[in-house]
Amino acid sequence: MGITTEQFLARIRLNPVNHLLLEKLPALGLPQCMLTAGCLFQTVWNLKTGNDPEHGIKDYDVFYFDDHDLSWEAEDEVICRGKALLGDLADKVDIKNQARVHLWYGEKFGKDFPAFKCTEDGVDRYLISCTRLGVRVRDGSLYAPDHLDDMWHGILRMNPLNAQPELFARKCRQYQQRWSWLRVEAEASGDDAQ
């Protein structure tokens, strides 16, 4: 038995930080704004394991896409607006303009990415396929290109769009330390791909 989109969206809101962010972020008016990454799937894994929904979640990622001004100053202005809106919660929130990622990613992580065309392009590059999830702030809809089955069943596969075996293995080990039931499997291929 898996998890439906509706069940997933209900569960992630059981984490009070996710709930608050999804309520407050529309006020920033950011184009293509999305709550994404670990705060979503880790909340579900925590609930499935019987942990507090916030257990071990280090940060809450907020992506948006604005290619009108690719300067750091423009992104920093958005970050400052976010801090003013979110108050104490802002220290846990990482706001990033996906239109700028190609400008710094290669230097920071050693692998260049092409310029993204939308927020979803950033989500699509996560190391682990089942973690490619985002909730659109505008309407609360789910972006899940790999669906929810692998995430729900704890199956970790390397994302072929960001094949970095050493980083993938390290991230999987970190996750398995917190959720021992997760398992690493080879990437699905052909008709098995989700």
UniProtKB/TrEMBL annotation:
Pfam hit, one: NTP_transf_6
Keyword vocabulary terms for this entry: Transferase
Domain of life, per lineage: Bacteria
GO MF, any single term: transferase activity
Database matches in InterPro entries: NTP_transf_6
Identification of the protein by name: Nucleotidyltransferase family protein
